[in-house]
């Protein structure tokens, strides 16, 4: 007899971290944090560009993983099936977390110089940068590595006027016209959509997306709503 | 023909889509020589143009040579870039140590790049987690975990059986696990 067992999520998490919750994260339950992580992971996978970072969620998840891991070890091996199920749940959470970070790293590596420039601009405009400080350091080092290796292998041996290389210009720009499935978590006003009736570029219609409605829509139209958390991608 | 050396570089990469072919130092040098030659020819032509010794139609010669220079440069950079991407894949699939079979195929700059990349990744990973505690290894858990649970009835004595995550079960005849 074979079965793939799934423990109800809240039961699994709560029994794993009973009594170990920090006082200052009492406002957000572990199930909430996991829900936020799942949403962030899904959004990051569906979006063609790098989204603003959710390292607050990542940090809480990491501390909870530590707690869960310890509880699991203290639990002992008496009831081996329950132990296995909890362990699998923990593995899943770790996988979600790692996959989220890997997806972001991939996007950063693809266009590191361009993203650094964009974040600089965001900071000047008073907005939050998209990359966390850790990721920014990574992007800076990565760009520098690329420039160094290009210089060493090719550019330094060329005549001086040919040595210029602007990585930010060469980085691939995300295709924001790509269609994505989006769900509105709140009623969103002012979503602009390219008008299909008019052939001219830039003629737009403004629509309202009701709460809990799902649409297939160009990413450009919902970008600001995804950033603010009013919509999520499927 | 102009730009043929550069095309050979790209063809070499395409012929071996999965592995990292040995660094073709020779071809790279020839491309650089080609660029330098074209560049020098351009300088001479420009001087002649400015001095009025040749007609204005020579300007299109300049443009053609410059286009060839740009193309060769682009091909060389693409060559290096794609080798780096393959090396990066290697780090994620097999870990941070290069076996000698691969090392032989890389130029010195690439080996240095690989080490620096591994170091960068390690710095990033250790910076995660609260106050840089244990950090996270991002190269594990590449796939969602999935395991089937099975209820087993033992037909024969087997003593101890160890599963993939280290749990031990004592199997005796006719016992249910």
UniProtKB/TrEMBL annotation, chain A:
This is DNA replication complex GINS protein SLD5. Keywords: DNA replication, Nucleus. One of its GO terms (biological process) is DNA-templated DNA replication. Pfam families: Sld5, SLD5_C. Residues 86-151 form the GINS subunit domain. It is found in: Nucleus. Belongs to the GINS4/SLD5 family. GO terms for cellular component: GINS complex. Residues 175-234 form the DNA replication complex GINS protein SLD5 C-terminal domain. The GINS complex plays an essential role in the initiation of DNA replication. The keyword Transcription does not apply. Its main location: nucleus.
Automatic annotation (TrEMBL), chain B:
Residues 62-126 form the GINS subunit domain. InterPro entries: GINS_A, GINS_bundle-like_dom_sf, GINS_Psf1. GO terms for cellular component: GINS complex. Gene3D superfamilies: 1.20.58.1030. SUPFAM superfamilies: GINS helical bundle-like (SSF158573). Keywords: DNA replication, Nucleus. It comes from the Eukaryota. Its main location: nucleus. GO terms for biological process: DNA strand elongation involved in mitotic DNA replication. It is found in: Nucleus. Belongs to the GINS1/PSF1 family. Required for correct functioning of the GINS complex, a complex that plays an essential role in the initiation of DNA replication, and progression of DNA replication forks. GINS complex seems to bind preferentially to single-stranded DNA. Component of the GINS complex. This is DNA replication complex GINS protein PSF1.
């Amino acid at each position: 007899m074979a079965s793939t067992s799934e423990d109800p999520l809240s039961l699994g998490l709560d029994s794993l971290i009973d009594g170990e919750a920090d006082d200052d994260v009492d406002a957000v339950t572990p199930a909430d944090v996991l829900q936020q992580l799942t949403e962030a992971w899904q959004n990051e996978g569906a979006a063609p560009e790098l989204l603003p970072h959710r390292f607050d969620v990542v940090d809480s998840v990491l501390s909870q993983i530590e707690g869960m891991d310890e509880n699991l070890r203290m639990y002992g091996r008496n009831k081996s099936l329950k132990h296995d199920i909890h362990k699998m749940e923990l593995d899943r959470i770790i996988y979600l977390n790692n996959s989220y970070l890997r997806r972001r790293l991939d996007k950063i590596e693809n266009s590191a110089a361009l993203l650094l420039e964009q974040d600089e601009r965001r900071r000047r405009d008073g907005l939050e940068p998209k990359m966390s400080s850790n990721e920014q350091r990574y992007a800076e080092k990565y760009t520098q590595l690329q420039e160094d290796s290009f210089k060493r292998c090719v550019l330094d041996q060329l005549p001086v006027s040919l040595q210029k290389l602007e990585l930010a210009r060469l980085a691939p720009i995300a295709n924001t016209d790509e269609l994505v499935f989006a769900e509105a978590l709140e009623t969103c006003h002012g979503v602009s959509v390219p008008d299909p009736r008019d052939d001219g570029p830039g003629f737009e219609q403004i629509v309202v997306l009701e709460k809990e409605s799902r649409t297939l829509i160009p990413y450009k139209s919902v970008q600001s709503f995804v950033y603010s958390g009013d919509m999520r991608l499927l | 023909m102009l730009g043929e050396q550069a095309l050979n570089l790209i063809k070499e990469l395409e012929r071996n889509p999965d592995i990292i072919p040995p660094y073709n130092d020779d071809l790279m040098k020839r491309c650089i020589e080609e660029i330098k030659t074209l560049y020098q020819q351009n300088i001479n032509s420009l001087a002649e143009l400015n001095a009025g010794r040749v007609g204005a139609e020579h300007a299109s010669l300049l443009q053609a040579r410059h286009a060839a220079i740009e193309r060769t440069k682009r091909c060389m950079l693409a060559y290096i870039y794609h080798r780096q991407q393959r090396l990066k894949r290697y780090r994620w699939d097999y870990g941070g140590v290069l076996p000698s079979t691969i090392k032989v195929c890389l130029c010195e700059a690439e080996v240095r790049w690989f080490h620096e990349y591994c170091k960068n990744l390690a710095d990033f990973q250790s910076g995660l987690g609260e106050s840089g505690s244990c950090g996270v290894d991002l190269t594990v858990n590449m796939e969602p975990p999935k395991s089937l649970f099975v209820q087993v009835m033992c037909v024969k004595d087997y003593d101890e059986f160890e599963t993939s995550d280290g749990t031990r079960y004592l199997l005796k005849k006719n016992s249910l696990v």
